[in-house]
Amino acid sequence: MSKIIDLSVPIDPHYWEPDKVKVKFFDHKKGAMILSKAAPAICANNFRHRLQLIVKNLTGKGVSWRDFPQGKGLSLMTYTITTHTGTHIDSPFHYGDKNEKGEPARTVSEIPLEWCYGNGVLLDVSNGSRDHAVTETELIGSLQRISYKIKPLDIVLIRTGGDRALGRKEYFHDFRGISLSATQWLTEQGVKVIGVDSFGFDPPFRRMFLDFYSARKPDSLWPAHFHGRRHEYCQIERLTNLDKIPTSTGFKVSCLPIKLANADAAWCRAVAIF
Questions:
Q1: Contact between residue 226 and residue 45 where contact means Cβ atoms under 8 Å apart
Q2: How far from chain centre, in Å, is Cα 200?
Q3: Helix, strand, or coil here: 155?
Q4: Which of 59, 87, 224, 249 has the maximal Cβ count within 10 Å?
């Protein structure tokens, strides 16, 4: 039997988020009321038939909430979230509507599914400096320690320890981020999906903005993201439990995104499979 390790964070209204998660909940009693009232509209063949069914409901001869077991129907929840809430995968369209050649960038529903299920490689750089983005040198050193060479379509998971602040405001800014050089090097090896255990893939917003103000260099802003315009790839942001993966290689990763038509990103239940 396969062992599955959940690498996804919950979408939780109690967690701090820049865009607050909102949940509207119709419980089972409310569900019985809604379904009983909806019966005439669902069953009516025409307007006259609908009126007849409404009269039946009003006179107690139609469907009532009392007709459901224990007076309870079906629940319903409505979540208001962004495409970047929780564990999600960014498509090339997120980085720009067109690539460097002027071709339309692929949306999340156009990502080849073969990219999203494959051999996993875990690179642990959690002991690196919290004030600096993960470098190419760190990734190469991590690979040398595990005696592994990256192969095309490997799904690379980078453990930085950024999930330690999950659920708190610090999660938004207390993480390392991945440097442009590290991203560029991985994509040059044929990697199409790179995952990280932090709020974002690039360094925290504050650090990028301060770097820009100090040197007025536009390439300080989301450099790893914008690299996706030159070299097509996807990011998984907000992974967790990478410390629970017992080995650096020899496992599969599944990170299939929800099929949101023409979306820039979508939620995924990322898992490691042994």
A1: no
A2: 11
A3: strand
A4: 224
- Length of the chain (residues): 274
Which amino acid type is present at position 179? S
Tell me, what's the pLDDT at 43?
Answer: 61
> What residues does CATH 3.50.30.50 cover in the chain?
4-18+83-273
**Looking at residue 253, what DSSP letter applies?**
E
Residue 98 CA, distance from chain mean position: 22
CA dist 81 → 11, 19, 90 (Å): 9, 7, 15
| 3 Cβ contact list (under 8 Å, min separation 6) | 273, 274
Counting as low any pLDDT under 70, the low residues of the chain are: 40-62
Model pLDDT, residue 46: 63
In the chain, the amino acid numbered 151 is: K
For residues 57 and 85, what is the distance between their CA atoms, to the nearest angstrom? 42
CA 225, 127, 169, 79 dihedral sign is positive
Average pLDDT, the chain: 92
Q: Which residue has the tokens 């932090």?
A: 198
- Give me the pLDDT at residue 57, please: 65
pTM: 0.91
Instruction: Determine the pLDDT at residue 131.
Output: 87
Do residues 106 and 232 touch, judged by C-beta distance below 8 A? Answer: yes
CATH topology of domain 4-18+83-273: Glucose Oxidase; domain 1 (3.50.30)
The confidence score (pLDDT) of residue 56 equals 59
